[in-house]
Amino acid sequence: MSATAHLAIQNVTRQFMVNSRIITALQDVSLSVAAGEFVTIVGASGCGKSTLLRLGAGLDTGHQGEIRHRGEPVRGASLERGIVFQEPRLFPWLTVERNVALGLENAAVSKADKKRLVDEHLELVGLTGFAKAYPHQLSGGMAQRAGIARGLVNRPDVLFLDEPFGALDAITKAHLQGELQSIWSREKITMILVTHDVDEAVFLGDRVVVMSPRPGRIREIVPVDLPRPRDRTSAAFATVRAHVLQSLNGTTSARDPRPTPADATPVLPRPAPAIAVAR
């Protein structure tokens, strides 16, 4: 594992107990992400993509192996690691600006600075005119923009995105993909995005991580050496997309049931020797 990795995932295995059976969601996964890189992750449903994202963000810590952010072990959630989910998860009784301000709830900044940051990030996602609106007054795309603004407002070092455009129509999705790419280009925040959409993965990613079905493992990492902004209609784009699709089609379906929150119980890792990180 590279000593210069901004986020280092090393030999990570994650298991759950489902109906008295141990299900391995991830097995021996290793991935290095450089500072300012945009990495996308694709794979079949149940391959552990979202589990890997939650582990990287520190929302789940019951794993074997090691995850380090800027050289320090990830042992829980942190303001340095933001996350955006498929559903915006906005509180319906709060305005857009107050929903975004929740991202600064535990930040050590003054009230004036909080307002400035919220205003700046509403402008960043094109919602300045909707600061006083409530979630029910927003379209699906606008609500997702608010969710992205909340994820960015405290200036996280890494932003994890779990299928943020999966529930949107094709036109809105393509528009927000372009906006997210523009935000990333300007802000240079390290981003890791999980998606089922191969086109989206190639359009946004510097590298596309292809995962095999459960137990989730990295099958291939495909570099996307295409200039930005990317032309989805170009022959070069089609070539990379076809490569990723071919890699995905080479995987086989798993027979194990996918763990669900209702019946999945984490299997805690057994103590293991500390893993040294090369320096």
Automatic annotation (TrEMBL):
GO terms for molecular function: ATP binding; ATP hydrolysis activity. Residues 248-279 are annotated as: Disordered. Pfam families: ABC_tran (PF00005). InterPro entries: AAA+_ATPase, ABC_transporter-like_ATP-bd, ABC_transporter-like_CS, ABC_transporter_ATP-bind, P-loop_NTPase. Signal peptide: none annotated. The keyword Protein transport does not apply. Residues 7-238 form the ABC transporter domain. Keywords: ATP-binding, Nucleotide-binding, Transport. Belongs to the ABC transporter superfamily. This is ABC transporter ATP-binding protein.
